[in-house]
Design a protein that fits this description.
Blueprint lengths: L1 H21 L4 H28 L17 H7 L1
Length: 79
């Protein structure tokens, strides 16, 4: 579900750039685009919040370090 929401947001983001570059949007099209982008942003924020809740935390507030000593939040970027 998260992957589908994020993929839709990426596609909408690209499409919105094309639409805004056209400079011929009607008010109705612009409202639809703004509504769609707002929904996609809401989905992305829910995904981020959900993923943040799943991150391990330490009692001292410092980032959790995995077995290799790297902060857990950096592992996904390297793998």
């Amino acid at each position: 579900m998260e992957a589908a929401q994020l993929k839709a947001g990426v596609e909408l983001f690209g499409y919105s750039g094309e639409m805004l570059g056209d400079h011929k949007l009607s008010k109705r099209e612009l409202r639809f685009l703004a509504k769609s982008l707002r929904e996609a942003l809401g989905d992305a924020l829910r995904v981020a919040e959900s993923r943040g809740e799943r991150l391990p935390s330490c009692a001292d507030g410092e980032p959790y370090e995995g077995p290799d000593g790297a902060p857990e939040s950096e592992k996904g970027a390297r793998e």
